[in-house]
Each structure stands twice: as structure tokens, then as C-alpha cells.
Amino acid sequence: MLRSVLVDGVEAFVQLEDEWNALARSVVTCHYTQTFEWAKLGWETRDASAGDRLICATIWSDSRLVAVWPFQRNRLGPATRLEPLGCGMHEEYGDPLIAPDMNAAEICRELMALLRPMADIIEVPFVEQDGAVRQVLERTGAFQIPNPLDSYMIERRGVENLDDLLPSYSSKFRTNLKQGRKRLQKLGELRFELPEDYASSVETIDWVIEEKRRWLRRMDKSCPWLGKGEARAFFLAASMKRGELGRVGLFRLTLDGNPIAAFLTMIDRTRVELLTTSFDPDYSRYSPGMLIIEDTVRWCFEHGLDFDMRILRMDYKERWSNAQTVRIQYRVPLTAKGAAVLLPAYLVYSFYWTVHAISNAEQRAAIRRMMKWRPVLNGRNRPPTGQIEPSA
Question: 226 and 279, same structural domain?
Fold first, then answer.
């Protein structure tokens, strides 16, 4: 017998730890971002505002927790909003954690039924395109604002080590890696590291964030989370955690002890997830970003893990990946007030996709067929209208 229970508040949330961990152990593919530890750190290191609430939708089978979906409730203008607990970047995968022996579609419907009365808007980042939660979100609210993005991975696919995988890449690709590494090694001692001590972790986190800020300034771009302190606070707190269900990994490539490329990642029992990356532009001619990927993938193979480069289409991801999926970010109004707040964004979204459809030849043909309309070619006589011309 399934029971739906809404957990509201920190005290009730803390009581979920043991059952949540047991559920995570039962899901072999559980992401570190779906664990109790990740959610707890997200709540403790967030940029707190008055009125914030910690809310978890849970499903129980007798005394066993079989599904959990954690959120924080905050404000977006005059509306209340649910958004997942996390590191502050709002880029984690947003699927709920569901026991493998449960009907995912039924569970997702029950979870959404719990959450709908709790806010005006729900934001869920990057759910699986073919997942059950996507189907539920598509049927929720007066409208939805989806943002689909390609996601890239390097899967082991039965290959035992990276040296067996590399021949599947072009000879030019492999040659560029070797030459870049040799040229860097001539400049000094090149080392690939996964720091375990706190001081090195702080150094790596701060270096990645500062290099990312420098890159944004050079490109005249902005990034909301870099202007806040919660992401740094989260990773500092997480850097020393070593739980059985996952950890943060701070991979870096150093030259004579100084970082020239680094990753902030999540490591769980099946994969390493790349969350954000930075490299020193002074060494760009040596492609340190490509070299640290090679080293990280080698480390993944040695530990029996896949490497998930995650969302956003980037040249280096397309060149490295051997698997690709689609993840979709959703913003959905749950009330009339939520619809009013999201309406401007929805109109922008609708206009963009209308223009995109019109500019696409296949879409234009489909629109013409739908409207049963045909263009009249210049110089062609118009078809008869059925009107009888008067005789002379």
C-alpha cells in the first residue's frame, strides 16, 4: 500500500536520512545530487531569505521510502516558487529518486500531486527526455516553458581502459593530444591530481571560480551563480565529505604546482559528472582542457566509471563523447498567479519557437499543409473562380 507524505520543515527532513540513504543504495544509478547529503548541504549553504521552506515530496510502501523529491520554496517576485535543493548553480539533473521496483509514472503523478498546492511555480532542471517526470510536467499547469539541451557522455561500453577506446577517435585527434602534452611537459612538471586535503580543495575551488569570472569578463557574458557565494560555500563544505553514495571531485592539471585546468565534478557509484570547468587562457595553445579530460577519463576507466560531460553543446564535448541524450529544463505555473508571473517568459519562448519554425523549410511546408494554402506563382493564370464573364 503506497502512502504519499509531504515533509515540510527541517526537523521532519532530518528524520528522512536513514530511509533516504537506504533508497539511494537500492538505486544503482543514483546520482550524488539525488542523495540526502547533497540536499542537506544545499539547504545549509543556500543564500537564505525570509520565508524559505524546505519541502520534500515522499512516497512510502508501508514503512519503506520508495521515492523522494526535495525542494526549497522561495519567492519569485510576488509568487512562491519551488526549486530543487542543490549547490546554487541550478544545473543538477532534476529527476526524483525512485525505487527500481516501483511504477515510475504512477510515482511521479503522486509526487506532483503533493507539490502542486505548495507554490505558484515549480522549476525543475534537466530531466530525462524519455523519463516519467517529463510526462507529468508536460501535463501540469496552464503552460510549460521547456528548455531542451543536449547532454554528452563518454561511456565505457565494455572497454577495459582508455587505451582501448582511443583508437575509435581520429588519428589527428590523438596526435593533437600527444603533442599538446609533450609541449607542456617541456615547460615544467605536468601533474594530474585529485586533491584530498582541505587546503588544496579550497585552492582549486577558488581558482575555478575566479578563472570562470575572468572568462565571462573576456566574453562579455554573465552567470547568475558566480555573483553569489552559495556555490563556493557548498563546494567548500562538500569537499571533505566521503560518503558511500558519492562525493565531490576536484580534478586539476598543474604545471610546476600551479593549476592550468580544473574541474568541479560529482562522483558516484557509476559515473563522474562534470559540473563546471576552467582553464588558464595563457596555455590555451596547448589545449589543457582537452588534456584534463583525457586524464579524467583515464581515471574513470581505472575506477569502473563513465564520464558524464552533461548539458550544453560544446565543441570539446562533441569531439570526446560516444553517447548523447537530451535533458529538458522546465518552468511550470501551478496557479493563476504563477501563470501571470511566467507569462512574459512564455511569450518570449513562444515567439522564439514560432520564428524558428517559420525559418525551417520542413516546418514551413507543414504549416502550409495545415492551412491548406498554396502560393500563387508569378506569371501563372489564376484558377477560375466560377464567375461568368459578360458577353461582349
Answer: yes
Pair 330, 84: CB distance under 8 Å: no
- pLDDT band, very low/low/confident/very high, at 35 (cuts 50, 70, 90): very high
In a domain, 320, yes or no: no
Picking from 274, 304, 334, the residue at the C-terminal end of a domain is: 304
Instruction: Tally the C-alpha atoms within 13 A of residue 338's C-alpha that lie toward its C-beta.
Output: 24
In a shared domain, residues 300 and 178: yes
pLDDT at 382: 45
One domain, residues 54 and 173? no
Contacts of 367 (CB under 8 A, 6+ apart): 357, 358
CA atoms within 13 A on the CB side of 12: 12
Q: Give yes or no for residue 162 having a pLDDT over 80.
A: yes
Using pLDDT thresholds of 50, 70 and 90, give the confidence band for residue 158.
confident
Which distant-in-sequence residues (6+ apart) come within 8 Å of 168 by Cβ? 322
Three-state SS at 36: helix
pLDDT confidence tier of residue 389, bands split at 50, 70 and 90: very low
Give, for 148, the enclosing helix (H) or strand (E). Answer: strand 145-154
Tell me the pTM: 0.86
> What 3-state class would DSSP assign to 392?
coil
Give CA–CA dist 82/99, Å, rounded.
23
H/E run at residue 56: strand 53-61
Distance, CA of 21 to chain centre: 22
Decide: 162 and 297 in contact? Cβ < 8 Å: yes
- Number of helices (H), then strands (E), belonging to the chain: the values are 13, 14
